[in-house]
């Protein structure tokens, strides 16, 4: 599943530009390596008792957060912060069982490339578009900007090999031109793949880190005195499963890096020229590493 992929613009008309992935092909499969599978299994067996010891504290954190989903859809929109959704190979396969082709819902994992549209109420400025890192008001909106996307790609020279291919680590869900998730129904604000949504979405607005459980920006936090006990338990369990899945994917991805990445030459003039030539034809080639190969 971790494959070479090619990005193309669906139309040269920049006012209605959108992205899609085509020509996905496998270079190397990690799953064929028995030693990698054995290493993953050993790591998971080590992690389970450690996570079990943190189970009560994780549950307590989730319960005390007073979380209740308001079904506003803001976490799926580009409303608060970068809403990129990292997705694992197994999660891609689950979504495909719903009749979706992966070329139509995934992109290589990239830095955020959506720009903030200046608020109508903001002060006059010579620039109509500001950086997403700037402070923005609640009525700000985001959109795909071709110039920002190209600039982001050009900034990845340290990841561009001698053939002009950009190497990246993992996949993300595609987003619409306004920055909202490809699977968000704009009318109902409902998820079209709710029962097979990725772990990042399933555990939102919580994530596990070295401190235990941390929280993202979400209006649903503190909207109740206490998170419903049944929901809190599901979230705590999903967080633990996510830690295990992410670690397994990390180990498997590392194997692919050794087989392909370490043999490539990056940031060369030859590679830059090849990248720019392909870009003239509105195409970019990626080499994507994930837990299923390269």
Automatic annotation (TrEMBL):
Pfam short name (any one): CxxCxxCC
InterPro entries: Puta_zinc/iron-chelating_dom (IPR005358)
PANTHER family: PUTATIVE-RELATED, YKGJ FAMILY CYSTEINE CLUSTER PROTEIN
Protein name as it appears in the record: YkgJ family cysteine cluster protein
Lineage: Archaea, Methanobacteriati, Methanobacteriota, Stenosarchaea group, Methanomicrobia
């Amino acid at each position: 599943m971790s494959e070479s992929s090619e990005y193309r613009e669906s139309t040269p008309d920049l006012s209605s530009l959108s992205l899609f992935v085509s020509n996905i092909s496998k270079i190397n499969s990690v799953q064929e390596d028995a030693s990698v599978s054995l290493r993953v299994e050993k790591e998971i067996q080590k992690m389970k008792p450690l996570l079990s010891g943190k189970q009560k504290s994780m549950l307590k954190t989730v319960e005390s957060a007073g979380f209740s989903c308001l079904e506003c859809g803001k976490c799926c929109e580009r409303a608060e912060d970068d809403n990129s959704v990292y997705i694992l190979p197994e999660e891609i396969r689950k979504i495909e069982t719903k009749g979706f082709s992966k070329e139509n819902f995934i992109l290589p994992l990239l830095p955020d490339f959506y720009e903030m549209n200046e608020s109508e109420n903001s002060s006059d400025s010579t620039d109509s578009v500001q950086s997403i890192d700037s402070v923005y008001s609640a009525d700000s909106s985001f959109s795909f900007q071709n110039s920002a996307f190209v600039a982001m790609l050009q900034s990845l020279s340290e990841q561009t090999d001698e053939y002009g291919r950009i190497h990246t680590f993992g996949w993300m869900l595609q987003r619409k031109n306004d920055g909202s998730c490809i699977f968000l129904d704009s009318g109902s604000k409902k998820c079209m793949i709710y029962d097979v949504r990725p772990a990042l979405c399933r555990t939102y607005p919580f994530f596990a880190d070295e401190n235990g459980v941390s929280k993202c920006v979400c209006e649903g936090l503190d909207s109740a005195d206490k998170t419903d006990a049944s929901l809190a338990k599901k979230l705590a369990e999903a967080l633990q499963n996510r830690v295990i899945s992410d670690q397994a994917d990390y180990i498997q991805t590392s194997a692919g890096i050794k087989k392909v990445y370490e043999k490539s030459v990056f940031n060369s003039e030859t590679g830059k020229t090849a990248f720019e030539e392909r870009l003239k034809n509105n195409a970019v080639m990626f080499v994507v590493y994930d837990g299923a190969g390269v």
